[in-house]
């Protein structure tokens, strides 16, 4: 830990500061310039982007008119960041990396004549906000609003050019009114597989009434009771109440999403135990859109790695459902003669899904998930004689073994159940029959089988699946190959291609032909069918928390759900004092905090048969709800008539070339590759089907920014210490007198290595922070933060300032003179390079080229020609808007540089009259020659050989060959 400066030291620093030139660009000047211009931008509405309507009075869409641009200019460009959760600790310097990048790009495109929309908001509902409020003892709304205010201040201090009239938070009542409205559109829709789109539930009712569609039970619609009709419709709704296995965290009193559970099966917040259990929850039928979600990935401009993650998450598989009849009367571990063990019609049937039906003859066991609905009806009363002790789990009866095993599985996450480890399971005391062979195989419960995948049942084929192989070895089950491995295969299970063996009528067939043949056989014998299945499961949409959007749903005496009328939205979240979830035990039922709002839990509505009192839904929506659609509300944030004005939505979201449309550039972390992006795509497609948006995809182009890492330090106990208090001495690191070890990790409070932007603003100014973060490396790559290196970016801005402003007088050092031809060429080459780099989001390259031009001006030491100064300021403007505005004003301009045209390179000036070419001897550069730009290869070779230095090196040696690359190099290879 560093010692405080002495009084003498402080006086010395003060004296040194007083000796600085009065107009040097330093932290004090930077802060004064930045605050002044930020206030000017706010007052002028500089970044307010107009919508495509005539005037504010014409429609709600016309309110967002900027004094700087009264109508949209040029082609449109919608740029958006994944909006932040307003953390109680505020920003650290790692957070703004993407925000600065999109701001630089937006500024560049504005200057290129584009109509740019660049908004920002806050994702403020959910568990993180609720937990932080619980820690501080404040109400979540108070806590969240304070956090938003702090983060807004920090972002504004960066000089980000967001349209302040479009700012929003998901917790705003006027915002979540429309979140609830979208939920009702989903609730009141069904998926029509014939037209392959969502349609209003009213059209389904019409089909039932006319008989064009049969009900699930086969009953005639006109003869069904009201309750029967409602149950029938609920089976088809895109939002429905369903029983599903969930992550139940008793200590937090709520269900958690998979992403809120650690690999160790504990809550990400608070590290509490999490249990899997079935509960009735709101679900979204995202599975109906699986094929469209897959197909449209080919139409968006996204990183291929993200597309792969979404494809894997959806997990489309072609295969077959196969029915295995349970042999209740022939329980036991034996494999009886098929003729003596044919199943009877009343025997229950286990259905499996497999992508390898061709391996069915190698089935040696049936494995069920502990949650499988047939388990309780299949489990035997007693163990048959001769049962292998390994199959019983040490229990006296199959029921006792099952109950103990289920309790063990419930304490594990899906990830834990599927990771590589010793396989576990218990036998249910019954067998099932392999349809192709008639063999009886034992039915086990095994925790590595998940109820959410396939049917929750797996035919164990150990010869072709390593997990099944390990299970079979553990329980002494037979292993038989049904696919012939290659001769050099020396492993255990073989899951590759080969000819079928030990498979009766399939023997000798390749995999593709064997699959077709077995599927034909299964379908002809009535024990299977071809199908397509998915890993994707319907979206669990309920949370037993307070801090979330209330559902616009009520229940009547039947217990069935009814929609709150759209005219009665929003259903406002009540202001609860006792809002925190209560810790419960594992077996307890959830107690949603909204149940404590005794006056709120019931409500009176007229739902068509007069005003009646109903019971409200007490769960809230997940945090994902508000972030699914916020890009649409940015377009028309104060419209209280419709979700978004259709004209406005088409202008900003439609692709004039007929593509998928959507946000033109969406920037955020790769950690949102699946859930947020998949959920948003689902909601958007429903809205597209119902005619509320113009295109099928929300985000046309996706860009993942990298992460800033920082040094973190641990003492001998492994405890992290405050990184800012660590000092380096002789290559070792010390926290006070304690030696600590260093490593690099993602910046954050858990590693105690966060650096706040406020500290950097104070020490150098926001423009320096912007420059440093953009210069650290390519935007899509990670980079280490080094506070001591920030000074380099500050010195660059000082040198730029010094080339245009006299540090003693503050007057311009600019000459109204024509720059010489060499400087003109240099400037135009810089413009071309910076334009290309900015267009490709390579801001580090743009800064490098600007630095080279500025260094050339410094080297010359003359007054900077006004035209060069003008170009330099405009090149810098997207990167450092504050100092650029100040210099632009000093150059005599009375308009903002934000809308000044970006410089354009003259193609004629990009063609060099002479070039410098390196000359190598045996691959090493030994000299450089200056030649005409259009020199021929023969003349270039002759010029290289004639160079004095090269002539000395090659004298007396045999030249084997000469490699000439025109305009690039000459390499003379000696024998």
* CATH class term of the domain at 317-481 and 511-533: Alpha Beta
Helix content estimate: 25-40%
Outline? globular
Query: What structural category characterises the helix and strand content?
Result: alpha+beta
Radius of gyration: 35 Å
Secondary-structure arrangement, i.e. CATH architecture of the domain at 317-481 and 511-533: Alpha-Beta Complex
Mean pLDDT rating: 90
Number of helices: 28
Q: What is the assigned CATH homologous superfamily of the domain at 317-481 and 511-533?
A: Valyl/Leucyl/Isoleucyl-tRNA synthetase, editing domain
Secondary-structure blueprint:
Blueprint: H1 7-18, H2 27-44, E1 76-81, H3 97-111, E2 115-117, E3 121-122, H4 127-136, H5 140-157, E4 168-169, H6 173-187, E5 189-192, E6 197-200, H7 201-210, H8 226-234, E7 239-249, E8 254-256, E9 275-284, H9 290-295, H10 304-314, E10 317-327, E11 349-354, E12 365-368, H11 375-378, H12 398-410, H13 414-418, E13 426-433, E14 440-445, E15 457-460, H14 466-475, H15 511-524, E16 528-533, E17 539-540, E18 553-555, E19 561-563, E20 602-606, E21 611-616, H16 624-627, H17 630-635, H18 646-653, E22 665-668, H19 675-689, E23 702-704, E24 708-714, E25 720-721, E26 726-729, E27 732-735, E28 738-746, H20 757-764, H21 766-775, E29 783-785, H22 790-804, E30 814-815, H23 821-839, H24 843-860, E31 864-865, H25 866-876, H26 881-890, E32 914-921, E33 924-932, H27 937-946, H28 948-954, E34 959-965, E35 969-974
Helix pairs in contact: 2-20, 2-26, 4-5, 20-21, 21-22, 22-24, 23-24, 23-25, 25-26
């Amino acid at each position: 830990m560093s010692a405080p400066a002495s009084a003498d030291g402080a006086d010395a620093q003060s004296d040194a500061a007083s000796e600085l030139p009065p107009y040097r660009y330093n932290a004090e000047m930077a802060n004064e310039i930045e605050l002044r211009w930020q206030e000017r931008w706010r007052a002028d509405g500089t970044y307010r982007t107009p919508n495509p309507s005539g005037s504010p009075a014409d429609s709600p869409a016309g309110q967002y008119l900027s004094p700087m641009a009264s109508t949209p200019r040029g082609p449109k460009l919608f740029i958006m960041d994944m909006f932040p959760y307003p953390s109680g600790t505020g920003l650290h310097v790692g957070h703004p990396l993407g925000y600065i990048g999109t701001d630089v790009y937006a500024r560049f495109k504005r200057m290129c004549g584009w109509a740019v929309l660049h908004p920002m908001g806050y994702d403020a509902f959910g568990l993180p906000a609720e937990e932080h409020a619980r820690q501080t003892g404040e109400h979540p709304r108070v806590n969240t609003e304070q956090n938003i205010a702090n983060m807004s201040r920090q972002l504004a201090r960066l000089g980000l050019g967001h349209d302040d009239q479009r700012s929003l938070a998901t917790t705003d009542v006027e915002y979540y009114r429309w979140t609830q409205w979208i939920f009702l559109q989903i609730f009141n829709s069904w998926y029509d597989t014939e037209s392959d789109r969502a349609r209003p539930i009213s059209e389904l009712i019409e089909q039932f009434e006319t008989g064009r569609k049969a009900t699930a039970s086969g009953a005639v619609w006109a003869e069904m009771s009201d309750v029967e009709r409602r149950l029938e419709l609920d089976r088809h709704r895109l939002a429905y109440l369903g029983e599903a296995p969930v992550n139940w965290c008793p200590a937090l009193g709520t269900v958690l999403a998979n992403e809120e559970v650690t690999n160790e099966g504990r809550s990400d917040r608070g590290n509490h135990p999490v249990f899997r259990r079935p509960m009735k929850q709101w679900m979204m039928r995202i599975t109906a859109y699986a094929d469209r979600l897959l197909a449209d990935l080919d139409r968006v401009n996204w990183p291929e790695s993200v597309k792969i993650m979404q494809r894997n998450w959806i997990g489309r598989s072609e295969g077959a459902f196969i029915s295995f009849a349970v042999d209740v009367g022939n329980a036991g571990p034996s494999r009886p003669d098929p003729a003596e063990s044919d199943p009877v019609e009343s025997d229950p049937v286990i259905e499996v899904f497999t992508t390898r039906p061709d391996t069915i003859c190698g089935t040696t066991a049936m494995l069920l998930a502990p949650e499988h609905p047939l388990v309780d009806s299949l489990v035997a009363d007693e163990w048959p004689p001769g049962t292998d002790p390994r199959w019983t789990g040490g229990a006296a009866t199959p029921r006792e073994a099952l109950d103990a095993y289920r309790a063990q599985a419930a304490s594990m996450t899906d990830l834990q159940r599927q990771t590589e480890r010793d396989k576990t399971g218990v036998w249910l005391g019954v067998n099932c029959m392999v349809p192709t062979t008639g063999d009886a195989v034992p039915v086990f419960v095994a925790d590595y089988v998940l109820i959410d995948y396939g049917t929750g049942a797996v035919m164990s084929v150990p010869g072709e699946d390593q997990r099944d192989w390990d299970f079979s070895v553990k329980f002494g089950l037979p292993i038989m190959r049904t696919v012939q491995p290659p001769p050099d295969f020396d492993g255990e299970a073989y899951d590759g291609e080969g000819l079928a063996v030990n498979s009766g009528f399939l023997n000798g067939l390749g995999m593709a032909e064997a699959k077709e043949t077995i599927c034909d056989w299964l379908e002809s014998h009535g024990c299977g069918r071809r199908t397509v299945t998915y890993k994707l499961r319907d979206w669990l949409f309920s949370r037993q928390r307070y801090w979330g959007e209330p559902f616009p749903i009520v229940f009547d005496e039947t217990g069935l759900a009814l929609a709150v009328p759209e005219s009665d939205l929003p259903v406002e979240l009540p202001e609860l004092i006792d809002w925190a979830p209560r810790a419960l035990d594992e077996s307890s039922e959830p107690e949603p905090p909204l149940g404590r709002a005794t006056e709120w839990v019931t409500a009176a509505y007229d739902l068509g048969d007069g005003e009646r009192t109903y019971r409200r839904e007490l769960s809230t929506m997940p945090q994902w709800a508000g972030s699914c659609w916020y890009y649409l509300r940015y377009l028309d944030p104060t419209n209280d008539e419709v979700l978004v004005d259709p004209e406005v939505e088409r202008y900003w979201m439609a692709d004039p070339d007929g593509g998928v449309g959507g946000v033109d550039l969406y920037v955020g972390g790769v950690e949102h590759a699946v859930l947020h992006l998949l959920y948003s795509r689902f909601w958007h497609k429903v809205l597209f089907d119902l005619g509320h948006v113009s295109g099928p995809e929300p985000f046309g182009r996706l860009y993942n920014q990298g992460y800033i890492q920082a040094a973190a330090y641990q003492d001998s106990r492994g405890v992290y210490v405050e990184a800012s208090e660590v000092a380096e001495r002789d290559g070792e690191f010390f926290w006070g007198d304690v030696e600590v070890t260093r490593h690099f990790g993602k910046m954050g409070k858990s590693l105690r290595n966060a650096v706040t932007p406020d500290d950097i603003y104070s020490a150098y100014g926001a423009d320096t922070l912007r420059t440093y973060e953009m210069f650290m490396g390519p935007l899509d790559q990670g980079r280490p933060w080094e506070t001591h290196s920030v000074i380099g970016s500050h010195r660059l801005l000082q040198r730029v300032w010094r080339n245009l402003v006299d540090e003693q007088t503050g007057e311009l050092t600019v000459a109204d003179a024509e720059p010489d031809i060499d400087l003109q060429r240099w400037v135009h080459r810089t413009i071309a390079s910076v334009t290309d780099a900015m267009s490709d989001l390579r801001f580090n390259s743009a800064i490098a080229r600007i630095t080279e031009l500025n260094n050339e001006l410094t080297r010359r030491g003359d007054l900077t020609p006004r035209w060069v100064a003008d170009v330099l300021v405009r090149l810098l403007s997207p990167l450092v808007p504050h100092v650029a505005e100040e210099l632009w004003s000093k150059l005599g301009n009375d308009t903002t540089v934000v809308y000044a045209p970006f410089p354009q390179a003259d193609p004629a000036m990009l063609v060099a009259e002479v070039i410098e070419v390196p000359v190598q001897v045996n691959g090493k550069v030994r000299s450089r020659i200056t030649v005409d730009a259009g020199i021929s290869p023969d003349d270039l070779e002759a010029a290289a050989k004639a160079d004095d230095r090269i002539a000395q090196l090659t004298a007396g040696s045999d030249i084997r060959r000469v490699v000439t690359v025109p305009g690039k190099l000459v390499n003379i290879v000696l024998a």
